[in-house]
Design goal:
The protein is mostly helical. It contains 3 helices and no strands. About 45% of the residues lie in helices and about 0% in strands. It is globular.
């Protein structure tokens, strides 16, 4: 069990809807969920509010589906931050 001073995302008592984003043509959806989850956790643990972390994660998942294969199409943190900033 991890004791954290931050409230859990599950403790948020509302549903959040964000519009879909498209960064490039869809080639394969393999790894999109993993990309979304990893990017969300990265943003949230760096102090972003859950909604902002999810919006940023959606950009990575959208970018990821533009590449074939599970290991292709990922961005590093700087690349994701640049993509999100350019699209926001």
């Amino acid at each position: 069990m991890c004791a954290s001073p931050r409230p859990s995302v599950a403790g948020v008592a509302r549903t959040v809807h964000l519009p879909a984003v498209g960064t490039r043509e869809v080639v394969s959806t393999v790894g999109a969920g993993d990309a979304l989850f990893a990017a969300f956790l990265d943003g949230w643990t760096r102090g972003l509010e859950p909604r902002a972390a999810l919006r940023r994660a959606a950009y990575l998942a959208s970018w990821k589906v533009g590449a074939a294969g599970g290991a292709a199409g990922f961005l590093d943190r700087a690349g994701l931050d640049a993509l999100a900033a350019a699209r926001s």
